[in-house]
């Protein structure tokens, strides 16, 4: 752990002290989560929004990850009008730290959303960050199609982003790991179409989201029948 600091505005947080982590694979994964489903819209709070139903288990993982990294338990709030679950890290110190490490404040897309250089410089950090990105803004899917009267179930992966730079960074990380990424014509999605590429992705990058593993297990189980 790097350091423990007092908050400038202690009333804005439910903790008096926070821990600022050193660069690590866990911190890089957290950064990927923040780039994907996170945001900083005020000086004292970082927020991550996930699906309260599909990502229920994953939200618990994020809370535990935050506790390990920053030494405080984030608050969680389910929006009554939607299926969204907000996870809040209430700390001016944490917000300032995340901004200094490369996170964007406000409209992150308009400011050039990308993976910071400290993550790109190390393969272990890069893989962890991509895992966080795909776990939030990506999915596994099963495509059913029929050829010559025979049904095939193909496994695929899709990562979506409206940032061309971020999309190309993820595609490059896939290529450097021996995968075969395809960016669609709109430039908003990068796909892994081949099942062997998806399986290799899971071996190299992994996933902390049960939603990802559930699709893979369902596809694998159907093939075994």
The overall average pLDDT, rounded, is 89
Shape designation: globular
CATH T-level fold name of the largest domain: Endonuclease I-creI
User: What is the total number of structural domains?
Assistant: 2
Number of strands: 10
Residues in helix, %: 40-55%
What class do helices, strands and sheet pairing give? Answer: alpha+beta
Largest sheet descriptor? 4 strands, antiparallel
- What's the architecture of the largest domain, going by CATH? Roll
Structural write-up:
With 225 residues, the chain is of the alpha+beta class. It has two domains: 3-111, Endonuclease I-creI (Roll); 133-224, Roll (Endonuclease I-creI), CATH 3.10.28.10. The protein is 42% helix and 26% strand. The protein is built from eight helices and ten strands. The protein has a four-stranded antiparallel sheet. Helix 1 (25-37) runs parallel beside helix 5. It is globular and about 60 Å long. The protein starts with a strand and ends with a helix. Residues 9-15 have low confidence and may be disordered.
List the helices and strands and how they pair.
Layout (H helix, E strand, L loop, with lengths): L2 E4 L10 E4 L4 H13 E5 L2 E7 L4 H15 L4 E4 L5 E7 L1 H9 L16 H4 L2 H15 E10 L2 E11 L3 H13 L4 E3 L5 E4 L2 H10 L5 H15 L1
Helix pairs in contact: 1-5
């Amino acid at each position: 752990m790097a350091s423990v600091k007092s908050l400038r505005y202690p009333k804005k947080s439910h903790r008096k002290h926070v821990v600022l982590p050193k660069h690590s694979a866990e911190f890089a994964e957290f950064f990927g989560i923040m780039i994907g489903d996170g945001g900083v819209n005020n000086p004292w709070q970082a927020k991550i929004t996930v699906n309260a139903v599909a990502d229920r288990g994953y939200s618990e993982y994020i809370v535990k990850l935050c506790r390990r990294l920053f030494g405080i338990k984030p608050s969680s709030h389910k929006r009554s009008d939607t299926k969204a679950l907000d996870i809040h890290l209430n700390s001016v110190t944490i917000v300032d730290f995340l901004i200094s490490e490369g996170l964007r404040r406000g409209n992150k897309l308009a400011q050039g959303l990308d993976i910071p250089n400290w993550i790109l410089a190390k393969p272990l950090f890069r893989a962890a960050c991509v895992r966080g990105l795909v776990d939030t803004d990506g999915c596994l899917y099963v495509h059913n199609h029929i050829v010559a009267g025979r049904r095939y179930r193909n496994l695929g992966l899709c990562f979506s982003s409206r940032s061309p730079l971020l999309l190309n960074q993820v595609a490059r990380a896939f290529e450097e790991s021996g995968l075969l990424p395809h960016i669609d014509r709109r430039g908003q999605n990068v796909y892994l179409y081949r099942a062997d590429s998806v399986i290799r992705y899971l071996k190299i990058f992994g996933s902390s989201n049960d939603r990802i593993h559930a699709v893979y297990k369902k596809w694998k189980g159907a093939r075994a029948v």
